[in-house]
Amino acid sequence: MNAPAFYPIGTPGRAWGAQEVAQWRARQVRHRSYADDVLSAIEGLRERFDVVEYGRLDYAPDAYPLFAIKSRNWDPNLPVALVTGGVHGYETSGVHGALLFLDRHAGDYAGRVNLLVAPCISPWAYERIHRWNVDAIDPNRSFRENSPAQESAALLRLVAPVRAQVLAHIDLHETTDSDESEFRPALAARDGKPFEPGEIPDGFYLVGDTDNPQPEFQQAVIAAVEQVTHIAPPDAQGEIIGSPVVAHGVINYPVKQLGLCAGITDARYTTTTEVYPDSPRATPAQCNAAQAAAVCAALDFALAARAG
């Protein structure tokens, strides 16, 4: 893939200001409907789960209610499992994989764990198939106190009351060809830095926590997903997206330091999934199924370890 010579907004070597952000925002086009794709699916879950509105994004002229789905018979004596999707709105299977898990698999965990699922954290970006929010901020670098991203701040408020009870947190993401063709060039332009081309891995992988890697847990998730779709191999340098591969299909990031969603609790078991939807070897249905399989495998491992 040839790297673009420039990004059409801003001046090379100079970070964006308000004018450039406004220019970028004006270029964003709605391609799909949060109401049709996500809210309608959530409505269909109300008979089986509690649905809570945990925030609202007022991005005039648009407004987006933020919903989380909870176990109906919440038991304070049980641990909590947190599932998050759509932190990056363009990562489609994160959203629909979370909804698929709820519809097809969540009932298997009734009475064993309290589920808290936020399937679409960034609905404005979901509609525009983008990584950033309306202010050209990446929510997945913004999960920290006084967050500049409304999406991140709303999720932090939702999770705060149960933060200490979270046993497992599975954050559902994708790595796409558009990371290299659009989003990383845009990031470089926004920050006034040169764009350095990278390599998109073909397949599923996981991002663990450098400070709490839990290798057996990560491998249990990889083994389950491998029954659904292929696992990304390391590149010639033994890396995936610039990070050393520490085990089959696994790299680690310092998630709390980077302000990533996977670091918002002190859960023992955390992982970030990365599906590759642009692979000729994977269909959209497989991508959604891979996300749901990852959630199930993570919960199965965490609950077995807790019982043992």
Automatic annotation (TrEMBL):
CDD domains for the chain: M14_REP34-like
Location of the Peptidase M14 domain: 30-308
Species per Swiss-Prot/TrEMBL record: Lysobacter firmicutimachus
Stored Gene3D superfamilies: Zn peptidases
Designated name of the protein: M14 family metallocarboxypeptidase
Family statement drawn from the similarity comment of this UniProt entry: Belongs to the peptidase M14 family.
InterPro entries referenced in this protein's UniProt entry, alphabetically: Peptidase_M14
